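Each field is set out underneath.
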Amino acid sequence: MTLRDSWGDMTALTKAASATAVAGTAAGGGIYFGTDLLKSKKVDISSLMKEVDPQKRFITATSTGDDSWKAAYKSYRESGKDVWGLGVKTASPETLIDATTEFLAKCKSNGKVKVSGKDDPLYKQVLAYCTRDTTVRDLIEEGKTGRKLLDSSDTGNDKESGWEDAWTAYRTKNHVEGGTSQNTWEVEGWDNKKTGNTLPTDYKTKCAEKAKQPAYRLEDENYKNVLAWCTK
């Protein structure tokens, strides 16, 4: 056997031993390595939020006068910490003012920061100061039902816009011929309207109000009602 052959055999043995060692480590410490890999994976805060805190949504409105931003800005000021160094003053409980462009910009930039999990301090700050409740509207718009919320400000033909069909769905569910009517949403003029196609004056408003209510589970009763009675 030549020296080259001997060296080749030793190299092969070394590789085999290394492979065996790695396999043994993987078998004995696979969970350890897997956990490390999982911890090293980072996700931007706004995306992570949808997974671990589905009851909240990152505020995407661009107006500083948006109600959600005003409430979020109030929470930031009430904390009295000014953790982002924005130079804001502590808010009194009754004060509700427009947010600042600096505050919106900070929320936006922080929402893009990648973190390893919900225990990250910045994640907790963004959750506390840059979010609003998830609503029925969110579930419908983000869902896969293929349904679309009807426009409550639409003053056109109710039959063409889809409102007449929505009202029919409500009437059918709530009115039992010869039985007891429910009128779940207590719409105006129910006794006179329950058998016709003409919408009560407040029906569109009811839909708009119900769509704004907090909900983050598809089992939510209000979500199911709005989906059935206010969409097309």
Observations:
- Strands lie at 43-44, 56-58, 114-115, 131-133.
